[in-house]
Design a protein that fits this description.
This protein is an alpha+beta fold. About 30% of the residues lie in helices and about 15% in strands.
Length: about 525
């Protein structure tokens, strides 16, 4: 009992320190923004309206202060993101995950150092990095849409991908803005992620923005003293250019894992020998990335995607891995081709305008599973591209990509529960309280854990295990425990209801146009 009380006290002290540091990140309308964050967390329902947040007991101001906080509030983005990076190790893996990692990390570091004594410093560093699997930080990068179909006069509005769109066909787009999020994911799939960075992007600059975000996260991790044992791993879904990410992060201590679109082609190094005449070869054997249906067509002698001739067989992979009878996927087979490079075009995309094109070596991985977790047969092939300071094991790579889906669950929680898109703004700068990050600023998925064991459910009565959050997005007894954690704001408005919200700025109106005949009639 005494040990539990000490653990609870330490957790409350850490959370009190985090809330104090979070309050110091607020530059303007700090009190209202901080109470707004508490109101979002303490609401026992999904946030679908800003007016409902005014009725929460944690928000002690009038509804006019709420609108004023969203309109004039400011947050120091760099300080806020640095705070999240400093709390990263405790926020990613809980006590159960750390216990599981300690049980499976059985490498004898003393014997490893003795074995690496005869290698060069570069080779020894690659081996240490590959063996530090459980100490490696993982991050997932994904973009989400902020749909604003009714904001006709909003600047910078484009057609962005929206999975909730009910359009016919495969083009599920909606007018709005796009925000790119970077989140830390754990070694075990938990459906939760710790958000670290978010910025507004456009499809034309998404790759450059992703590279800038990765470098910013690396800088904050280095300042916080994290990621020194192993180079971090950043996982991207299909839609990002593997060649551009590899070139933009070349020389950085980071691993990149990108899912490839079907139809991609990679080439091995050319084979040369003494006495060969003629122009030297620029590329070696080609490695194609077809879909499962293309393999069936090639076996029948047909070409994929309306090709008359079938594709030549891929060369033998340099590494294979077979995992029989996995709980969710059955038999898993992974193949790797090391030292291959993509074909780069210098007339478009990231490499447009370059006179000399680089050769970007990496590893091409192909993963096939027997079944999906819901029992269906896999209908798409999974081709992955990995590049970094050194090679990584196939088992780590395919499991890291599956853990990437945790960020999608986090985005769904932000939108459906915490009201990420509840504010119907007309300008892309309004959903941000600073220069880059989305509203609302809540310590929901990034506050330090574990939570106190006394947390309860939406009705404040049902207990939940320590270190866990409810699926509906509420923090249980967050409201009743707030006085114990401390409330940084000291100035409060009078309890009487405040005035109506601030006067809204006039909407931008499009110039009125009419026919020449009607214009002449009006002048008469």
């Amino acid at each position: 009992m005494f040990a539990d009380a000490v653990a609870r006290y330490r957790a409350l002290e850490r959370l009190r320190g985090f809330r104090r540091s979070l309050y110091e990140c607020l530059d303007a309308r700090a009190d209202a923004l901080f109470e707004l964050a508490d109101a979002v967390l303490c609401a026992d329902h999904a946030v679908t309206s800003l007016v409902q947040l005014c009725l929460e007991p944690e928000f002690t101001r009038g509804h006019g202060a709420l609108y004023d906080a969203l309109s004039a509030g400011r947050i120091d983005d760099e300080r806020f993101f640095s705070l999240l990076a400093s709390e990263l190790p405790q926020a990613v893996d809980g006590p159960q995950a750390r216990a599981w990692i300690a049980e499976h990390d059985v490498i004898d570091r003393g014997l490893l150092e003795n074995a690496l004594a005869g290698l060069s410093p570069d080779d020894a560093a690659q081996v240490r990095d590959a063996c530090a699997r459980w100490a490696r930080l993982r991050f997932a990068v994904d973009a989400t849409a902020y749909p604003r179909p009714d904001a006709w006069c909003s600047p910078g509005r484009e057609h962005v991908h929206n999975g909730a769109c009910h359009c016919r066909g495969s083009s599920k787009t909606a007018p709005g803005w796009e925000y790119q999020l970077t989140a830390a994911i754990g070694h075990l799939r938990t459906a939760w992620a710790a958000l670290l960075d978010v910025a507004r992007t456009v499809p034309a600059t998404r790759t450059a923005q992703a590279i800038a975000q990765v470098k910013s996260v690396l800088r904050r991790l280095r300042a916080a003293g994290h990621g020194m044992k192993a180079a971090p791993l950043f996982v991207f879904d299909a839609g990002y250019s593997a060649a551009a990410l590899t070139d933009g992060l070349l020389g950085c201590p980071v691993h990149v894992l990108v899912r490839l679109a079907a139809g991609s082609v990679f080439y091995a190094d050319p084979v040369t020998w003494e006495g060969r005449h003629g122009r030297p070869a620029r590329r070696g054997a080609a490695v194609h990335c077809p879909e499962p249906a293309d393999f069936t067509a090639a076996a029948a002698g047909h070409g994929p995607r309306a090709r008359k001739k079938p594709l030549p067989p891929n060369p033998e992979p340099g590494e294979t891995l077979t995992l029989p009878d996995t709980p969710l996927y059955g038999t898993v087979r992974a193949e790797a081709w090391h030292g291959v490079h993509p074909l780069i075009h210098g007339d478009r995309g990231w490499f447009a305008g370059r006179k000399s094109l680089p050769v970007l070596p990496g590893t091409l991985d192909h993963v096939t599973v027997e079944r999906l977790p819901d029992g269906r047969d896999p209908h798409r092939a999974m081709w992955l591209w990995h590049a970094g300071p050194g090679p990584l094991s196939l088992d780590e790579l395919w499991r890291a990509y599956l853990a990437r889906f945790d960020i999608e669950h986090a985005i769904r929680t932000l939108k459906s529960i915490l009201g990420l898109t509840a504010a119907k703004v007309r300008a892309p700068s309004r959903p941000t309280a600073g220069s880059g990050s989305s509203w609302p600023r809540t310590p929901s998925s990034c506050s330090p854990g574990p939570w106190p064991p006394a947390c309860a459910g939406p009705g404040r009565n049902s207990p939940i295990p320590p270190g866990r959050w409810l699926r509906d997005g509420s923090a249980g007894a967050f409201a009743t425990s707030t006085p114990a954690w401390g409330h940084p704001p000291v100035s409060r408005n009078p309890p009487a209801p405040g005035p109506a919200g601030p006067k809204a700025a006039p909407k931008a109106q499009l110039p009125a146009t009419c026919s020449p005949a009607k214009q002449a009639y009006r002048t008469q």
